[in-house]
Please model this.
Amino acid sequence: MGLVLVSLLLLLGAAVYLFAYASDPQSFLFRNILMLLTGLFLLILFFFFIGLLAMTGTILGRRPFPGMDWLIDKTLLLLFPVVMSLGRLFHIAQDQIQRSFIEVNNQMVRARRHKVQARQCLILLPHCLQKDSCPHKITLSTDNCQKCGRCQVGEILDLAAEKGVEVEVVAGGTMARRALTQYGPQAVVAVACERDLSSGVLDSFPLPVLGVVNQRPQGPCLNTRIDMEALQKALSSQLEYLEQAKEAK
Ligand code: SF4
Model:
């Protein structure tokens, strides 16, 4: 969020500079075109500031601002690449920025409290969660998992079955997009590394995706693990209303 604000302030500085430059009385045409462009730029920045304010208010108040969802989504979507570039400039680890982005996105999704039934929710898992020596093709079908306990896939499948939620194991963005087209979920809980999660969330906007960052005790893409409590929490959050309704019966 801090980097988003810094990006906006830098862009504002650029706009003010352009505005001052355009005030040069030497070139009438150039000045008018430049002033028009600068005016448009300032207007867009103004909307971004409003978007950032609404985002902060949504997170702090844990409730959505009526009618501001579109602006908030656009602010996040358009400013994220600027924030990433700024992070590179200041030598801030990309993982750290992506993790913050996922956290902000998760808080937005939670604050919006989408009402989803279990069959409208999908869990997306990365194939690196599977034990590397496992011969079963769980990317073809999760039914192929023998739930042998050598990795957490079986445990996650049991959890999903208990909640009535579909699970897909995907090997990359293309497979994830195909799964989204196939199931057409209204909400997603996705497990992946910071980079894949942030790009997946951006690709899927405005679909509410709760991201759970995986653990990589053996390095990237090999025998990764997941904090089961975090997964359960994310799932309960997406199915919150359904579970509340069940409890009320
Ligand atoms: S639980 Fe066992 S069978 Fe299932 S994916 Fe993991 S290693 Fe393979």
User: Anything to note?
Assistant: Residues 130-131, 134, 136, 138, 145-148, 150-151, 153-154 surround iron/sulfur cluster (CB under 6 Å).
